[in-house]
């Protein structure tokens, strides 16, 4: 992210009446696991101390299928929205349904710190950490595996330039934290289970949605997942009270034969979102003709720095994940990715060290220009602590300790994030290139913003599904997301060209980011999520 910015910057209601829903929470101990969690039950607000080895099965049921909000997708971003809603005074009394077929949502699990780290990780920014602290989820992350890093080094395979970043440059203790996706999701789930908050998990998939007309004589419209055809008719229920009860609500039909109703449907169901498809929200997307290979590797020493080297086929990143482990995210062509995924472990280790060290070109060396720029930055008072830091050699990889996974890379952006009674967050609204690790941070930003917009709407008596309210969220997040997407896409294209003049421009960008203090601080603040716009705002 910081390298990307350096290149691009240098180169250019009424009070709501709650329908009482009575729910029960059953905690069923499983054999071979402990049968109690320190700190109380599902509604305890006390801090929960981590037991040595504990897993409990949690089953939540309701006596009514009517909810204020239905979140389709119980991944990290969907759970983050639920936690955010449970943390705001104006929204914590809402009834929220979470629809997801993942059985993990019905478990209380503490992940062991001494297990081998999973290959799927996220680099969360200080802004995301602050959000997790606000909603009470960071306490659970701290009790599981995570790795802060306070330094980052980015360099080009040509050896013409490099940039080092240090948290001290902006007066911070860290630049970010690398956390396994399963730890983030589990921490959000544990946090949500401890909230005194009306939530229901439906272990199923969404199959269709029916939008009830605000005027009963106009009938209903039904949309099926995977089927763009629609059917409508003028039908009134014989049970008048049931019709009034469900008036103005969206009906959601599930794969297990059950149905529920909600005032607002949130699509948090990923890049292939059924909610987005059913609602008819169009997207712009394209493939990058690249794939990312990810895995966990081991060193002989502990790694505390995030490393990224830009190669002709794409960047390779080495991210600390705790102890002597690091995570690899290596972008390359699709055929290359298949080859690297299937090669022997010894050959893969050699390929990684070749890519991070002596392959493709030399290490960057200090030059007369570097020494002049260093003196100039301090004379003008624009120096930062990392200005005087020289290029460092990343730690050698000794073993691959996880499965190697590969997935294609693409960009996608929804033209609209919202329609009447439907709104999109996270990958359902946008996907980006992983070169800066910003995808999940954008999603958490969506969750935070939507929860606040809903709270503001309730304060003035606005209906939860009213389009004008949802468009306020869209306006705020679309501007931030499109800006970040444009930066990452432009950077990906800039590094897809291997041409002498372009290489020199990239080297100049690295030097500018290394020695021009105000530029470096601006890049860091934006990448850390603490500044809204990338240009000295």
Automatic annotation (TrEMBL):
Pfam families: FAD_binding_3. It is a peripheral membrane protein. Its EC number is 1.14.15.45, 1.14.15.46. Its main location: mitochondrion. Residues 68-354, 397-481 form the FAD-binding domain. The keyword NADP does not apply. It catalyses: a 4-hydroxy-3-(all-trans-polyprenyl)benzoate + 2 reduced [2Fe-2S]-[ferredoxin] + O2 + 2 H(+) = a 3,4-dihydroxy-5-(all-trans-polyprenyl)benzoate + 2 oxidized [2Fe-2S]-[ferredoxin] + H2O; a 2-methoxy-6-(all-trans-polyprenyl)phenol + 2 reduced [2Fe-2S]-[ferredoxin] + O2 + 2 H(+) = a 2-methoxy-6-(all-trans-polyprenyl)benzene-1,4-diol + 2 oxidized [2Fe-2S]-[ferredoxin] + H2O. InterPro entries: FAD-bd (IPR002938), FAD/NAD-bd_sf (IPR036188), Ubi_Hdrlase_CS (IPR018168), UbiH/COQ6 (IPR010971), UbiH/COQ6_monooxygenase (IPR051205), UbQ_mOase_COQ6 (IPR000689). GO terms for biological process: carotene biosynthetic process; xanthophyll biosynthetic process. Gene3D superfamilies: FAD/NAD(P)-binding domain. GO terms for cellular component: extrinsic component of mitochondrial inner membrane. GO terms for molecular function: 2-methoxy-6-polyprenolphenol 4-hydroxylase activity; 4-hydroxy-3-all-trans-polyprenylbenzoate oxygenase activity; FAD binding; oxidoreductase activity, acting on paired donors, with incorporation or reduction of molecular oxygen, reduced flavin or flavoprotein as one donor, and incorporation of one atom of oxygen. Pathway: Cofactor biosynthesis; ubiquinone biosynthesis. The keyword Acetylation does not apply. Its cofactor is FAD. Keywords: FAD, Flavoprotein, Membrane, Mitochondrion, Mitochondrion inner membrane, Monooxygenase, Oxidoreductase, Ubiquinone biosynthesis. It is found in: Mitochondrion inner membrane. Component of a multi-subunit COQ enzyme complex. HAMAP family: COQ6_monooxygenase (MF_03193). FAD-dependent monooxygenase required for two non-consecutive steps during ubiquinone biosynthesis. Required for the C5-ring hydroxylation during ubiquinone biosynthesis by catalyzing the hydroxylation of 4-hydroxy-3-(all-trans-polyprenyl)benzoic acid to 3,4-dihydroxy-5-(all-trans-polyprenyl)benzoic acid. Also acts downstream of coq4, for the C1-hydroxylation during ubiquinone biosynthesis by catalyzing the hydroxylation of 2-methoxy-6-(all-trans-polyprenyl)phenol to 2-methoxy-6-(all-trans-polyprenyl)benzene-1,4-diol. Belongs to the UbiH/COQ6 family. This is Ubiquinone biosynthesis monooxygenase COQ6, mitochondrial. It comes from Phoenix dactylifera. The lineage of its organism: Eukaryota, Viridiplantae, Streptophyta, Embryophyta, Tracheophyta. The gene is LOC120109002.
